[in-house]
Predict the structure.
Amino acid sequence: MAFSDWIPSLSKSAQEPASLAHLQSQDRNTVAELINLTLAQINPTAAIPGKTAQFLNSVTTFFNSTLSPKEKIIHSLEALISGAQIGFSLYMVLNGETECDELPTLICRMMFASQLLYNGLLLAEKLPAYSHDLSRSGKSAAVLN
């Protein structure tokens, strides 16, 4: 018996296909996150424009009429987390901090935790959405490689 069989809401939501607007938004957020991770290696404040793009993408997608309530919750969480990350980065810029090498300050720990939350949210939402679309279309992961 699968874990999702024990909780009816999980098994029901796994059967619902993700909307196209949601998948496209997740793709844009993922690309922006990859760019942000690259830029953050050079200078953590260089990721502010990418985080702003993620924030705006999630906010505008939230208002799309084709999204399900579950997808709206996901985009509101993404907007809140990326908005907090913008705030953390701006705080660092205004206080002259440029690096979080060993997470010495509270702000660096908060940035690290929010990054883990954001990446986890992207991953947890992206994989089931695409696996459902693949199974619905009859394609396997081997075909895509």
Summary: The chain has one domain: 19-135. Residues 16 and 22 are 13 Å apart (CA to CA).
